């Protein structure tokens, strides 16, 4: 499949999926400053596990609150379930927020290799919407440090946030009256510095739409386009678009995706509305995406009996079936 055919097919798919979007609430297309990622050879998909699916157990182990599970042991779970890769989220490394020692990184890489697993990415916490400049500066330094960890791991993408991750607070709360335009300028400045460091070490900065600053495809693309660097791209979180049609947003951002987060619901972790995985994978394929699809299962707040050892394999089976049906 040539690039022109892939692009034409993607535009046709978006047109179908966005049918009816011209009604009230439709979002105008942003001014594009950055070209979609060039694709060759058609879509090719591999499945990864985002370690956050085991968040409580990983934290229990690291904080000595019971048996839990270690990041090393999670590699064995991935191998037993035939994942292609693991997304080893930074804050489950025992030393986080400090970077792990070389010995731990090397042991983790060696074990992953021996189990036939790639390391599809890693991620950190940061807050770039805050009016507190020292916090933003600290966030940039933190990301730069973990860019170097990602390079040592062989992880091609480092996942970061544009938004505040302070529970119960919005970007407007932490921005302290500053306009959206001013806040985006702060984020762009910070991400641009991170992307330059990523370029130096061969690690792409992936911006995840997780929070209330990036609620739509337009908003995510506006930010990525403003950074305008091949070392900064979109991570499409399928469970965090806050619009009347999340699939439209996914289709809009898909050509710019450097990675994904495949969630069980497009409406958030507490929703009973299941992701239409066949529809989603058709969007992914239409964009020509070649790479990893990390799955991230979440514990609904209303349920206390979340068992990752059961939920993850079940969701993995559903995703594999959708990939097979759309091949």
What does this structure look like?
This protein is an alpha/beta fold and 327 residues long. The chain has a single domain (40-325), classed as Divalent-metal-dependent TIM barrel enzymes (TIM Barrel, Alpha-Beta Barrel), CATH 3.20.20. The chain has 11 helices and 8 strands. An 8-stranded parallel β-sheet has the order 7-6-5-4-3-2-1-8, with helices on one face. Strand 6, helix 9 and strand 7 (257-261) form a beta-alpha-beta unit. Helix 1 (3-17) runs antiparallel to helix 10 (277-286). The longest helix has 22 residues, at 180-201. The model is unreliable at 1-32 (pLDDT under 50).
In short:
The chain is α/β, with parallel strands linked by helices and 327 residues long. The chain is 43% helix and 13% strand. The chain has helices spanning 3-17, 55-62, 71-80, 102-114, 133-153, 171-175, 180-201, 217-227, 246-253, 277-286, 308-325; strands spanning 44-50, 85-87, 118-123, 157-161, 204-208, 232-237, 257-261, 290-295.
């Amino acid at each position: 499949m040539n690039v022109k055919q892939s692009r034409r097919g993607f535009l046709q798919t978006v047109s179908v999926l966005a049918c009816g979007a011209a009604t009230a609430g439709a979002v105008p297309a942003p001014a594009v400053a950055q070209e979609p990622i060039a694709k060759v050879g058609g879509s090719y998909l591999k499945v990864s596990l985002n370690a956050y699916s085991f968040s409580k157990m990983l934290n229990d182990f690291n904080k000595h609150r019971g048996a839990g599970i270690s990041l090393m042991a999670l590699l064995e779970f991935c191998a037993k379930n035939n994942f292609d890769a693991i997304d080893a989220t930074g804050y489950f490394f025992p030393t986080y927020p400090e970077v792990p020692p070389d010995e731990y990184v090397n042991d983790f890489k060696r074990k992953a290799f021996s189990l036939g697993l790639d390391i599809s990415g890693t991620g950190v916490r940061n807050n770039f919407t805050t009016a507190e400049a020292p916090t933003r500066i600290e966030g940039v330094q933190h990301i730069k440090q973990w860019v170097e960890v990602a390079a040592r791991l062989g992880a091609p993408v480092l996942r970061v946030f544009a938004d505040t991750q302070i529970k119960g607070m919005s970007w407007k709360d932490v921005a302290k009256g500053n306009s959206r335009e001013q806040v985006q300028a702060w984020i762009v400045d910070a991400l641009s510095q991170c992307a330059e460091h990523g370029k130096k070490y061969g690690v792409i900065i992936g911006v995840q739409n997780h929070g209330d600053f990036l609620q739509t495809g337009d908003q995510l693309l506006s930010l990525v386009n403003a950074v305008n660097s091949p070392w900064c791209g979109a991570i499409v979180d399928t469970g965090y678009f806050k619009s009347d049609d999340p699939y439209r947003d996914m289709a809009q951002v898909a050509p710019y995706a450097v990675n994904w987060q495949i969630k069980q619901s497009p409406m958030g972790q507490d929703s009973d509305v299941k992701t239409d995985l066949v529809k989603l994978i058709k969007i992914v394929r239409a964009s020509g995406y070649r790479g990893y699809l990390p799955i991230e299962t979440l514990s609904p707040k209303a349920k206390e009996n979340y068992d990752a050892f059961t939920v993850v394999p079940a969701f993995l089976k559903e995703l594999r079936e959708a990939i097979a049906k759309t091949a």
